[in-house]
Amino acid sequence: MGKTIVEKILSAHTDTDNFRIGDIIKARVDFAFANDITAPIALKYFKESGARQVFDKKRIGLIPDHFAPNKDIKSAEQCKLLKEFAQEYEIENYFEIGKMGIEHALLPEKGLVLPGDVVVGADSHTDTSGALGALAIGVGSTDWAAVMALGEVWLKVPPTIKFIYSGKLNKWVSGKDLILYTISRIGVDGANYKVMEFSGEVIKSLSMDNRFTICNMAIEAGAKTGIIEPDEITLEYLKGRAKRPFQIYHSDPDAHYEKIVEIDVSKIEPQVAFPHLPENAKPISKAKGIKIDQSIIGSCTNGRIEDLRIAAEILRGQQVHSKVRLIIIPATQDIYLQAIREGLVDIFITAGGAVSTPTCGPCLGGYMGILAKGEKAISTTNRNFVGRMGHPESEVYLASPALAAASAILGRIASPEEVK
Amino acid sequence: MIIKGKVWKFKDNIDTDIIIPARYLNTSDPKELALHCMEDYDSEFVNKLNQGDMIVAGRNFGCGSSREHAPIALKAAGVSCIIARSFARIFFRNAINIGLPIFECEEIADQCSEGDFLKVDTASGMIKNLSSYKVYKTNLLPEFIQKVISVGGLREYVREELKRREKNV
């Protein structure tokens, strides 16, 4: 029997022979990272464990991105812990404000997470790097502290569900729409403990930015991770970035999958996930007209250069609706600079949008775009739970950058087709 | 360990933003986190909860973020045990790692009512509903996880593993 890409990556990272699905194995970790929310607890536990050093100074990332640039004194204290730890333990990949970005956009961009890697991040959206063909798994702080000390993680070997996308993509349908549609098909626990392998001719035709968006939201279906087999597009992305050699793995044609889900994308319209679960996606034709107070374009899900280009294409020469706050947050400094060089930031500000330095800020109701009671936002972020972006009686509608831009102009949830 | 407590029932898909809203994540102090536990779901929950009470929930409890602050807040607020139809995987690991007992059991989620008293034997996985006298057998955790728990949690496991490695050098 053949193996899936995930089984091959695990085989290369464990001493256990002939493991089966459901077995618990220890896997060596290639890169481990945490942020200003999850690291403080982990760093304390690490010190208490009696470890004298981290497993590898070059393979740890500390990224203050959630409440950074520091939003208040308490956040400043948390970020300070990361900086001090990085100095004390000579962590190479500590990213200070001005060099940082949202971790899941930054680490692939810097070539620190690579195909074939086992990546463990203390953040649920660690799955994003699965788009490179890595096994990238989100954990909590105690698990992460153990990884930092031991360089390995215990894992239950997961079954894989294969998703095959075929057909012709409709206008304005992006990776975001495909993943929202997929989650609506299987539900928010439809892949709990399992891997979602995204494949098919449509995935092969997608850019890396769209692939990152898809893998990013596998966790919203409960998945252990999302993964896409590397191809020429992956290798092209890695040129000039990869900081070390890497291994490419593919699933065998006779690999065993728990389930295969085939999706004809030609039937998919741009999607909007209604409050308060990411599985509540509806086609835009059934979502139009809801008045909004805010539009957020950014986050680890949709803050990459292509996301900004699409938003700029729609916002060029337009004005943001007088009753709407449009907040655009490039995910990394490099993306921010690129957006300036391409004239995108000019378009956003001329249209009446606000552009921020990279931060996770509003996505998790931290700062930089909190909703008041009764307010509604369309957002390119990943979660629309109760109170996620602010007041418990506010609402978040998840969508692509194209829809978020069009809705900002019209003051209601809208399709780019409606923007003249 | 035997724990007894009163049941608070919760629906499916209780996410980590409900358990502890991210606006309070600028601290990791358990006592401070406990003050805001489930605040957006029921602002009085923490005040109504008695030390040792239990949560019985539906599917996918703890979905969403990886924040360990979620089980920390629940434990510090006084929750002694969580029984759900199913748990989201990161929450499941986090709860075990911080020593908050959790069990998957569909029957209990279906059959017990808010206010019932449960008696849980964490070692055997036997759970008795003291209000209805029904007894339930839950699945035991995998051997490796039991080993981690038996040495006192993942932090202790790491300490022992580091010592073992030092000896072998």
What does it look like?
The complex is a heterodimer of chains A (420) and B (169). Chain A has helices at 5-12, 39-48, 73-88, 103-109, 141-150, 175-186, 201-205, 208-216, 232-238, 299-302, 305-315, 333-341, 344-350, 401-410, and strands at 24-28, 31-35, 60-63, 93-94, 118-122, 135-138, 152-156, 160-166, 195-199, 225-227, 259-264, 271-273, 281-283, 294-298, 325-329, 354-355, 376-379, 395-398. The mean pLDDT of chain A is 97. Chain A contains 14 helices and 18 strands. The longest helix of chain A is centred in the N-terminal third of the chain and has 16 residues, at 73-88. Chain A has 420 residues and is an alpha/beta fold. Chain A is globular. Chain B has a 7-stranded mixed β-sheet. Chain B has helices at 16-19, 30-35, 45-48, 69-77, 89-98, 106-111, 143-150, 154-168; strands at 2-9, 54-57, 81-84, 102-104, 117-121, 126-129, 135-137. Chain B is globular and about 55 Å long. Chain B has 8 helices and 7 strands. By secondary structure, chain B is an alpha/beta fold. At the A-B interface, helix 2, helix 3 and helix 5 of A face helix 5, helix 7 and helix 8 of B.
Number of discrete helical segments of chain B? 8
Low-confidence stretches of chain B: none
> SS-based structural class of chain A?
alpha/beta
Instruction: Quote the average pLDDT of chain A.
Output: 97
Question: Quick gist of this model?
Answer:
The complex is a heterodimer of chains A (420) and B (169). Helices cover 30% and strands 18% of the residues of chain A. Chain A has 14 helices and 18 strands.
Give a topology summary.
The complex is a heterodimer of chains A (420) and B (169).
Chain A: H1 5-12, E1 24-28, E2 31-35, H2 39-48, E3 60-63, H3 73-88, E4 93-94, H4 103-109, E5 118-122, E6 135-138, H5 141-150, E7 152-156, E8 160-166, H6 175-186, E9 195-199, H7 201-205, H8 208-216, E10 225-227, H9 232-238, E11 259-264, E12 271-273, E13 281-283, E14 294-298, H10 299-302, H11 305-315, E15 325-329, H12 333-341, H13 344-350, E16 354-355, E17 376-379, E18 395-398, H14 401-410
Chain B: E1 2-9, H1 16-19, H2 30-35, H3 45-48, E2 54-57, H4 69-77, E3 81-84, H5 89-98, E4 102-104, H6 106-111, E5 117-121, E6 126-129, E7 135-137, H7 143-150, H8 154-168
Parallel strand pairs in B: 1-2, 2-3, 3-4
Antiparallel strand pairs in B: 1-5, 5-6, 6-7
